[in-house]
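Structure ticket #2291
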Amino acid sequence: MTADGFRRLALGLPEASEASHMDHPDFRVRGKIFATLGHPAAGWGMVKLTLEQQTLFALADPDVFVPVAGGWGRRGATSVRLRAAKADTVRRALEAAWRNTAPRRLAQQLDVE
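Resolution: structure written out below.
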């Protein structure tokens, strides 16, 4: 997975947009961040998961998904090692993060599509 691939997947979600926060790209739905790129370094992404989702992704693919250090990680922020990631796995993580962030009615659009 490349940064451009991560970006395409994130922006393919309903009403997703790209902005910038703390000098790295982020992806938002209705103004709220659900994923970022380039943190903690180039070659990494981050998805905002629940703690349960974080545990499941990290157990299933520990070479790809790692809790962010500190308090953010204890709230579900999960780093994604892009080089080790496959597109279908990243797509599922981004969809989960997007659903966690999007308003309920908007999130239901993924179920219909």
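Closing remark: The first helix runs from residue 3 to 11.
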